[in-house]
Amino acid sequence: MTATNTHSSNNTAEAQFLAPQTHQPAGVVKFKIAEFRGAVSTLNWSRCDLHGSTRSEWLQADVRGRLQRRIDEVETMLPHVAARFAHDIDHARNAIKSAQEMIARWEEAKASENAGAVPADKPAAPPEMASLIEIFGEPIHTVTRADLIEMGELVEVSAVAKEAGFKIPVALTRAVWADCVEWFPLDTKRTGAVQDVAGRLWDVLCIAMYAARRNKSAGVLTYQLRRVARDGDSITPQLVDLKMVCSGGDNGEPVITILQPSED
């Protein structure tokens, strides 16, 4: 099913942000917003990867080394981000804070291990997990849906989704949000297309609901949407594929996630 979108989005490859021009040396490096978002995502996923480690793996890993270079990369870019990208700035600061907190926990755990501290008693593991824990050690943390929303990798849109007819929580991946929902006044000025975030999000959710009603028994389905890209090449809505997945949430409750086809 396709639909013409009169309110649209995409990561603008042309969008650049510079530091304030006061006291700037010659040859200031220009960053594209997509590069900044990529650096923030890399920081978040580096932290997620460490979340999946067992306790012994985590203690042996160079957590500070792995995360600090990612933090430094984002912090180097932050002063050069224009104020109009306020959401991206907040997202980056949250990513840095979370990574710094993980480094602090790792350093505390390393210090306790070196001091010979004995961890507090924990409830016994279920029988089926006992042998795995014996081999690999206690897991540090499993990344939850709530974690991904807090990190900004998922965008919670349940309130609007309810208006569109959804009865369970709905979230979009950051990539879908950037490509199909996000829109700034600068995009309207550059493309000449009158768009806004509210209208573009409504299109994504309404077409998703239509697809869901036609495939009520499907846990995973794909659907198509026409949206105006933010690349400035054309104001003609272009067809994109999206994927909708119904799965269990953090507590086993049904939730829906809308992704790009290449995302898992």
Question: Would you give an account of this structure?
Answer:
With 264 residues, this protein is an alpha+beta fold. The protein is flat, with a radius of gyration of 22 Å. It has helices at 33-51, 55-60, 63-77, 86-114, 127-136, 145-151, 158-164, 174-181, 185-191, 197-214, and strands spanning 16-17, 31-32, 154-156, 170-173, 220-227, 238-248, 254-259. Helix 1 (33-51) packs antiparallel against helix 3 (63-77). It has a five-stranded mixed sheet with strand order 3-4-7-6-5. Strands 1-2 form a two-stranded antiparallel ribbon. A hairpin with a 5-residue loop joins strand 6 and strand 7.
Top keywords for this entry?
alpha+beta, about 260 residues, two-stranded antiparallel sheet, flat
Number of strands: 7
Q: What is the mean pLDDT?
A: 75
What is the makeup of the main sheet? 5 strands, mixed
Helix content, binned percent: 40-55%
Q: What is the percentage of strand-forming residues?
A: 5-15%
